[in-house]
Design goal:
Number of helices of chain B: 9
CATH architecture of chain B: 3-Layer(aba) Sandwich
Structural class of chain B: alpha/beta
Helix content of chain A: over 70%
Radius of gyration of chain B: 19 Å
CATH superfamily of chain B: P-loop containing nucleotide triphosphate hydrolases
Order of helices and strands of chain A: HHHHHEHHHHHEHHH
CATH topology of chain A: ABC transporter involved in vitamin B12 uptake, BtuC
CATH class of chain B: Alpha Beta
Number of domains of chain B: 1
Strand content of chain A: under 5%
Number of helices of chain A: 13
Strand content of chain B: 15-25%
CATH topology of chain B: Rossmann fold
Largest sheet of chain A: 2 strands, antiparallel
Largest sheet of chain B: 6 strands, mixed
Oligomer: heterodimer
Number of strands of chain A: 2
Strand order of the largest sheet of chain B: 6-7-8-3-9-10
Number of strands of chain B: 10
Largest interface: A-B, 26 and 41 residues
Shape of chain B: globular
Radius of gyration of chain A: 19 Å
Structural class of chain A: mainly alpha
Order of helices and strands of chain B: EEEHEEHEHHHEHEHEEHH
Helix content of chain B: 25-40%
């Protein structure tokens, strides 16, 4: 027991960094799944899209931040397409996401010029290296602190957004479409907008992760949606009674817990390849208990 | 003035279940009129409401408001000037949002849905004043989630949200049917008050013949997509519950119910 625990603790800072970065994607998935009530599988394609765009741009000499913003723009376009397919062609949410996700695989390969791996040289400027902020921070903690800043910024931005008129409308679209229509707004357009915003956040995550790992992998998107959803559901269910805590906070904690349990499982001897199965089972467990609860509660009126 | 002329609506066209509900249906409702519509199930009451709101489109005919043809206007555009209360009290409010947030949403109907703060705290007192006359205590629980309210409270909240911004028409689609008798009476009184105070043109579909007699200044009975009774003004006032009930029973017997 002592050896796995030790290796878990040794890897803990890295786990925390990863957890924070993945929390960015979980926040995006929270926006679609929790707020808009839209299971958006685009994420499996838009997560690597964000990585591909940002990494390619950095390799061609862009600064990390503009690269991320362009990546976010690319992903917003992807979310927009998913939304248009769903709303205008009236194709089910899951299928709309799968269609775009599949198309993105090819598009991502085009962006990287055909290679499924891109590595960022040590000397390149990224958010985590070779910039003034990273050099000003203590080197052992700089990655963690920068990741923390990014997540905090995303959380605050999302909280602020959800409190605006537009934010209320997005929440209404996920809660009761009729209300959005009754307000004289096209609920389809509200959904499309929400999908674009959420995927923008996902791109951000993909780009940041690639910059931190200094590596882009085409396969990084596989299961991205499920692991983000697991983070969302863990966070929201664990703190069900904590009404004071915002959903964004719960989701970030959920992502950290997910990554920590992932790290624990690895140090207990499971292989990285086993983890998709573990995630699937975990996910199944949470969803089935959640389903049972959904029948009892809500909308008794 | 709401004018429907030559409306035709066929369900499941080209199948064995084809049902022609409306054929050359016409009805005009002068501005400011409170119209009650009764009729058995399948008589076309709800379809009529859906046609007016744009939830469904007619296969032929025209719907016009003050001379403006709205037949092809999408539902959400029409609802800018139409308020609609559904039978299910859960339809008019967002369960996961607080009373305050729901009211703010309705308040923002006429505003741009931009990045301004969604809830204007300065309007809180104004919201309380709107809720107080309901006598349901909603004014003291602005932070409660709408999903935690009773059916009557939720329907009353939906009503307030509907008439919060200026509208021309109020569509009431069996809006008391899911409530207990006492709460129904309360919601009916609130409805009547809202219609009179705002000078609205109102269309109320109801299964409650008593309400249809007691409220409104015109009474319509639909049967298989046609108007079998249409009384307004003095004629309506003279109409007794028994008369309507007799006709209603007669129709039902014809149908074999």
């Amino acid at each position: 027991m002592a050896v796995p625990l030790l290796s878990f603790l040794r890897a803990f800072p890295a786990t925390l960094e990863q957890g924070l970065i993945y929390a960015l994607m979980a926040l995006g998935v929270m926006l679609t799944y929790l707020i808009l009530d839209f299971p958006d599988l685009t994420v499996d394609g838009s997560f690597p899209l964000g990585g591909a765009v940002s990494t390619s741009l950095i390799l061609s000499g862009f600064s990390p931040l503009p690269a991320l913003l362009l990546a976010a723009a690319a992903d917003m376009a992807a979310g927009l397409v998913t939304g248009l397919i769903h709303v205008k062609l009236k194709i089910r949410a899951l299928f709309s996401g799968i269609i775009v996700m599949t198309a993105l695989y090819s598009i991502n390969l085009r962006i990287t010029g055909g290679s499924s791996l891109l590595s960022i040289p040590r000397g390149s400027v990224t958010l985590f290296r070779n910039n003034a902020l990273a050099e000003a921070l203590p080197s052992a903690l700089s990655t963690l602190l920068i990741a923390l800043m990014l997540v905090a910024a995303a959380k605050i931005a999302l909280d602020l957004l959800l409190g605006t008129r537009l934010g209320l409308l997005l929440r209404a679209a996920g809660d009761k479409q009729r209300v959005v229509t009754a307000l004289g707004r096209d609920q389809g357009n509200v959904k499309i907008l929400g999908l674009a915003l959420a995927n923008g956040l996902v791109a951000f995550c993909g780009g940041v992760l690639c910059q931190q790992q200094r590596l882009f992998e085409l396969s990084m998107g596989t299961g991205a949606m499920v692991l983000s959803l697991a983070s969302v559901i863990i966070g929201v269910n664990l703190f069900k009674r904590a009404e004071k805590l915002r959903d964004t906070t719960k989701v970030i904690i959920g992502a950290l817990i997910y990554k920590a349990s992932y790290g624990l499982a690895i140090s207990l001897g499971l292989r990285p390849g086993d983890m998709k199965l573990v995630t699937a089972l975990l996910f199944l467990g949470i969803l089935s208990t959640r389903l049972l609860r959904a029948k009892e509660a809500e909308d008794h009126a | 003035m709401l004018e429907m002329s030559g409306l035709r609506k066929v369900y499941n066209p080209g199948t064995v279940r084809e049902l022609c509900l409306f054929e050359n249906f016409s009805l005009s409702i002068p501005g400011g009129q409170f119209l009650s519509i009764v009729g058995s199930n399948g008589s076309g009451k709800s379809s009529l409401m859906n046609l007016i709101c744009g939830t469904i489109r007619p296969d032929a005919g025209q719907i016009a408001v003050d001379g403006l043809d709205i037949t092809k206007m999408p539902e959400h555009r029409r609802l800018k000037r139409i308020g609609r209360i559904h039978q299910n009290p859960a339809m008019g409010t967002c369960a996961s949002m607080s009373i305050l947030e729901n009211l703010a949403l309705a308040d923002n109907k006429v505003r741009r849905m931009n990045l301004m703060p969604g809830v204007d705290r300065k309007r809180k007192e104004r919201y309380r004043e709107m809720l107080r006359p309901l006598g349901l205590g909603l004014e003291n629980m602005l932070d409660a989630r709408a999903g935690s309210l009773s059916g009557g409270q939720r329907q009353a909240l939906a009503m307030v949200m509907c008439v919060m911004t200026p509208i021309d028409f109020l569509i009431l689609d069996e809006h008391t049917a899911a409530l207990d008798p006492k709460t129904s009476d309360l919601i009916m009184e609130l409805t009547d008050k809202a219609v009179r105070e705002n000078g609205l043109t109102a269309l109320m579909v109801t299964h409650n013949l008593r309400y249809a007699i007691q409220y409104g200044d015109r009474l319509l009975m639909l049967h298989q997509g046609g108007i079998v009774l249409d009384k307004a003004g003095k004629e309506k006032e003279a109409t007794r519950l028994e008369d309507v009930l007799d006709l209603f029973t007669q129709i039902s017997i014809e149908l074999g119910n």
